[in-house]
Amino acid sequence: MVRLFRWKAEASLSFSTRDSSIAWYIATSLIALRQECPTAYFLMCGQLAPRRVRLAIEGESVTLAFEPSEVHVLPEVKESTAEVVTSRQTILDVLHARLTLAEAVLSDAIVLKGHVDDLTAFHDGLMTYVRGAVRSPSFARLLDRFRIG
User: Fold this and answer.
1) What structural domains and CATH numbers belong to the chain?
2) CA-CA distance, 38 to 129, in Å (whole number)?
3) List of residues 6+ apart from 44 with CB closer than 8 A
4) Could you tell me the pTM of the whole model?
């Protein structure tokens, strides 16, 4: 189950809501991943448990707290085992292959903080998330909304 501070896992994947916060996108994508590609969702949770990953994107931040079979989307939490700082544009540049993940990190377009083991787990979990996302029908619409901002 995805436990969210504002959204319920049982929520529909209708994108009629006007919310465009980073937390909303992340929460909605995790709901979609769990519903549409549960194998990837549970593998990602297992890869990242028991870590807390803080994502900061253009001044907004959200923390994901992983357990072996679920993830909690939390409001700003000061302590995390890994931190990722980037921008919407960098995310889009990586997704559209205008920039590789390695190039983004080396150019500081993506800043990673944490112990090497936690960052390695984050990378593995991110790759599992992306592999599941490309197999989930809702992600195309969600990505379109993310592009618009």
Assistant:
1) 2-7+19-148 (3.30.1050.10)
2) 10
3) 33, 66, 71, 125, 128, 129, 132
4) 0.85
